[in-house]
Amino acid sequence: MQVQKVNPDRSIELGVKESSAILKYITIKAYKFPFILILWFGVAITAIGMFISMFHRMSQNRRKTDQV
What we know:
It contains one helix and two strands; from the N terminus they run E-E-H. By secondary structure, it is of the alpha+beta class. The chain has a domain at 30-68. A hairpin with a 5-residue loop joins strand 1 (2-6) and strand 2 (12-15).
């Protein structure tokens, strides 16, 4: 998609390019997100917390079955 025209009344016209030709290569755009490191840090913290919780719950269940 690409912007074809920007009108003064704050509306735009979008255009779509379609082709039936078989392309030899595929091109992608890579965007740089400035805070992506913070996102991955949050994912890592969440995963670590999940594993800690899982091991804690497993150890609690073992203690309960040993006491019975």
